[in-house]
Specification:
Elements (H helix, E strand, L loop, with lengths): L13 H14 L11 H7 L7 E5 L5 H8 L3 E5 L3 H13 L6 E4 L3 H7 L3 E7 L7 H9 L2 E12 L4 H5 L10 H4 L8 E13 L5 E13 L2
Parallel strand pairs: 1-2, 1-4, 2-3, 4-5
Antiparallel strand pairs: 5-7, 6-7
Bound molecules: S-adenosylmethionine.
């Protein structure tokens, strides 16, 4: 419960503030992201031959959730922003996979406390205010035995994070956040990966991703 105090006269929680900030960002533009699935997610998941249930956390406008559904996953996708979720629903319907994705405008913590587990849990650049270790620990609890967790974020040395000081305390190194996983229960891969994309003006852009992939033993 959030209490009204002199310091917090509106009674808003940090999460309410985060939700409004994200929703305002989505409302300010017709589209924020490219509509294409994240390449590092494809690299990690494409080879899985027997898709099951998947949770996409911080799904934004839904491109990853739509891609997962097209690969045969039965997807739950959650995002704090109702504007983003509305767009994600439209994207899934237009792609013909609306019946394979359940979209929810909720907080990830509330969702994993009330639903799951899933065979695959993914989080691409969710930027939690609680930090990467909290994110990994919270999402690990939502992975079914034998399932997989994929958490990808900006590494502290990622040029995008360096350019945006507000992002810096939300970056993480994969081996640092991996310490919250019990190695007797999880097989863990924690890496720093570089990739490049092409900007609309033709310039090449470098990204440095923290990539955590963990498989939960049966
Ligand atoms: C940088 S965007 C990434 C969107 C998408 N995963 C992608 O890669 O295009 C981060 C998203 O996480 C969502 N988000 C942040 N904190 C969240 C939380 N606690 N629960 C659910 N969604 C959250 C934001 O609303 C935002 O849409």
């Amino acid at each position: 419960m959030t209490t009204r105090t002199e310091d917090n006269p509106s009674g808003e929680s940090a999460r309410d503030v985060e939700r409004e900030a994200w929703d305002a960002r989505y409302r300010s533009r017709e589209r924020v992201w490219t509509g294409q699935p994240n390449a590092p997610l494809i690299d990690e998941v494409e080879h899985i031959v027997t898709p099951g249930t998947a949770l996409d956390v911080g799904c934004g406008e839904g491109a990853d959730a739509v891609w997962l559904a097209r690969q045969g996953w039965l997807v739950t996708a959650v995002d704090l922003s109702s504007t983003a979720i509305g767009r994600a629903r439209e994207h899934a319907a237009a792609a013909g996979v609306g019946q394979h994705v359940t979209f929810t405008d909720d907080d990830l913590e509330a969702l994993v406390a009330s639903q799951g587990p899933w065979n695959l849990v993914t989080s691409l650049y969710t930027h939690s205010v609680h930090g990467g270790r909290w994110l990994v620990e919270t999402l690990a609890g939502a992975v079914a035995p034998g399932g997989m967790l994929v958490v990808i974020g900006h590494h502290p040395t990622d040029p995008h994070a360096v350019e945006h000081p507000d992002l810096r305390d939300k970056t993480f190194a994969a081996d640092d956040v991996a310490v919250v996983l019990d190695r007797s229960l999880w097989e863990v891969s924690a890496t720093l990966r570089e990739r490049t994309t092409r900007e609309p003006d033709g310039r090449e852009r470098l990204w440095r991703d923290a990539v955590l992939v963990a498989r939960r033993h049966d």
